[in-house]
Design brief:
heterodimer, A: alpha+beta, six-stranded antiparallel barrel, 28% strand, globular, B: mainly alpha, 0% strand
């Protein structure tokens, strides 16, 4: 027993070093798997408040670009106004059947709320954004984040009471289900950690007609993202050697260095969809069991 | 100003510069991420105990980690250089300690060449370990090697710039203090 104490005293620095190393690595690997780690909630409240103050200054540098985006968005919305159209005779008016509920209104599937990016990087392999809205404003994990002009930015991975962390599209673990706007073929968007201007799209078969300049949008099947939101445009065609499918180089629609005002979008049916999928899997598994 | 207060202010400045200036520079190249914050650990006074160094290193790294959403990554690297620092210093400073009574490592205290070796070695150690940890999760081996050398080069450039722009006043250890 005495020897143990002697050993500890003799190698105290080394042991302290190993303990701290172990703790740091434990945090790192745990965070990479779950995006959750001890004190992260408290820490992001603190960093969030500092970031928010610094961001006030930072805003002035991106204001022009931001104004242009918002103005374009307004333009596209103004174009949708009823007063721009001449409607046919009321007796021949088209009626949309909303199927689920028999009222004039449809069923809301996506709910949007505004937020502000307070910290954002593009230089790393794993880039995160911090938003100034959190759990107490209704932000939850897996909500989509879209730029002020409606293009895709990322997905919420962690929330603290007043701030939330977003995994940007520029994150090597990120994977978004996307489709080509023209043909509707769906594939997967990933990032290789190299150039923040380009993403890669996999899973498009070679028989599909793809041209440089085609728009890539979020797919209809995504649980997180609202459908048909622009991700980017095809900038180069390549072949994925492992599958023989296309490997499309996609130029992002967003300039990630100057994002400012964003939308956080909640899929109100997400829980139901995830639940349904899990239940289906369970059911199929049960049917496959021998002896039935 | 006491050493403690001075170093706390230094830590805050280094973290602010790292988080709001260097992390936000427009993308230069995928191998280049400028790092300077660990210079704080290199500048700590000689008098800090080894355990003190380890804890300071851990806190420094963790502070940056919480800003960059990478809990543990920089903390691990900082603890490593904090652990290695006393060994490097003991090799590089003159053995005759009666002559040597400077407070903290600086080009003037250690001599320009030994100080640069000291800075280079710890920078290299910090980046190697950090890039290795990143590589374990993602990336190619060759990329990792290039990245270590590229980031070390950029960091050394920054360190030399900082040393030239802000020469610290050499303060002697005296009996009065």
């Amino acid at each position: 027993m005495r020897n143990i104490f002697l050993f500890i005293r003799q190698h105290f620095t080394l042991l302290a070093f190993l303990v701290l190393q172990f703790f740091a690595l434990w945090m790192l690997f745990k965070f990479n798997r779950h995006h959750r780690v001890t004190f992260l909630g408290v820490a992001s409240e603190v960093t969030g408040n500092v970031n928010k103050q610094v961001d006030k200054i930072d805003d002035y540098f991106n204001q022009g670009e931001e104004n242009r985006r918002v103005h374009k968005m307004n333009d596209s919305l103004l174009n949708l106004l009823r007063s721009n159209f001449i409607f046919p005779d009321t007796s021949r008016q088209l009626v949309t059947d909303t199927m689920m509920i028999d009222t004039v209104r449809g069923v809301r599937r996506y709910s949007w709320m505004p937020a502000k990016v307070v910290y954002n990087t593009v230089n790393f392999e794993k880039n995160y954004m911090q938003l100034d809205r959190g759990a107490s404003q209704g932000v939850k994990d897996n909500m989509a984040v879209l730029n002020s002009d409606g293009t895709v930015l990322g997905v919420v991975v962690n929330v603290s009471p007043n701030f939330s962390q977003v995994m940007s599209l520029l994150h090597v673990q990120n994977s978004v289900s996307a489709s080509l706007k023209k043909t509707g073929e769906s594939g997967n968007i990933t990032w290789d950690g190299r150039d923040p201007r380009f993403l890669y799209m996999k899973g498009i078969p070679k028989n599909v007609q793809v041209k440089v300049g085609d728009t890539v949008v979020t797919s209809q099947h995504s649980y997180n993202y609202p459908p048909r939101k622009i991700i980017g445009r095809v900038a180069g065609l390549g072949t994925d050697p492992s599958t023989g499918f296309y490997l499309l180089k996609v130029r992002t629609a967003v300039n990630f260095t100057n994002v400012q005002q964003v939308f956080v979008v909640e899929n109100l049916h997400r829980d139901e969809q995830v639940q349904l999928e899990a239940d289906t899997e369970k059911k199929i598994e049960q049917q496959k069991r021998p002896g039935r | 100003m006491s050493d403690l207060l001075k170093n706390i202010i230094r830590l805050i400045l280094f973290i602010v510069v790292q988080v709001y200036v260097l992390n936000k520079v427009p993308h230069l190249h995928r191998f280049i991420v400028p790092y300077i914050y660990f210079l704080f650990i290199l500048w700590l006074p000689f008098s800090v105990s080894r355990l003190g160094l380890l804890i300071t290193g851990f806190v420094t790294g963790l502070t940056l980690d919480y800003f960059t959403h990478s809990p543990g990554l920089h903390a691990a690297a900082c603890v490593l250089i904090a652990y290695a620092r006393p060994f490097v210093i003991s090799v590089l400073i003159p053995k005759d300690t009666t002559e040597f009574n400077y407070r903290e490592p600086s080009p003037r205290a250690m001599g320009f060449a030994p100080y640069m070796i000291y800075a280079f070695f710890l920078t290299f150690l910090h980046h190697s370990y950090m890039v290795l940890l990143q590589w374990l999760q993602f990336g190619a081996f060759l990329d990792m090697v290039i990245k270590i050398f590229a980031t070390t080069g950029i960091s050394m450039l920054l360190i030399i710039t900082v040393e030239l722009l802000f020469p610290r006043k050499v303060r002697f250890r005296t009996n009065a203090a």
